Amino acid sequence: MATSARSSADPGQNSAQVPGSKNQGRVERLIAAIRVLELERKIRKSELLELAGVGSQSSFKRLKAELAAAGLPITYNRADGYYHVPPEASFARYGIDTRTRGQLAQVRATVAGIGGIAQEALEQVLAVLEARVAFDDPEAVPVVTSRHPQPRGGAEFYAALDRALSAVREHRWMSFTYERTAGGAPEPRTIAPYAVHAHDGRYYVWGTLEGDASAFPAPRMFALDRMRDVTLEPDRFEPDTSLDLGEALRTSFGAMVSLDPPHEVVVRIAPEAAAFVACRRWPAERDAVAEADGSLRMTFLVSRDDELIAWVLGFGGAATIVSPPSAREALQTRAEGILAALR
Which of 17, 51, 270, 289 is the most exposed place for a label (fewest CB within 10 A)? Predict the structure, then answer.
């Protein structure tokens, strides 16, 4: 687990942080550089390095490549000591459809779970695309062409998402104020983030709370839309290699993870909905058996019943829970609540 005392996995990198940029994500820093180039059409190398928060020559070359990919190639002019943008270069000309921002966020969250060299290469490309969207329209929201929900958030939400992805990639402690949906006053939180998880248009950061490991024995999900004042701390944490989001979600029906031991829940899908369900593999699914009457008998292994019960209710009576009795009773209670609300 992440230790209670913040440690630095790379103190040398911490000291290289540029003042004013330590709490910014890499994409935000790239946006700042783009804005200067768009307005001034030129920039000194020292200013560009400061805005981008980098210091090495290799980082500078990578930054030049990212700017070129964004439609702003820069060339050095010895006469005045500036890097110039060609007159014909225009960021707007290379604009990306801002309606795709929600879909792009989902791709970035998915890529974050890949790990290794592939993740780093893909993230660099996606970060440039995100910067282009943010520059064109910071409040851009997608026009959904399917029933798959997309995040409603604006500039603050996407800035928080970028910081979360940066924190996961760089193993940085992450602080924020958390507004719990169950009520109560917002509370400050500092976590060691291990992954960003996207589910049905909502984004979660899976991380371990700072503090005594015995009090916080496992990572938990924090909804990104409930976070305010998201900050990347200068300190880094040493990741616990035994923690794996894929393993944690193995007994989850979507986003809810629990330390409770997993148990089987058997669901019967009526014939009229069986084809819709049978063509997909569902989260936490263990078995699916077609019955002689055309129904589908499914077995799930979950740690919590909540999301599975909501899924069953969505079939409007064409699905029911067979066992265990506790899950059947919970389903009935939820259904009676719906009926009471309709009266």
Answer: 289
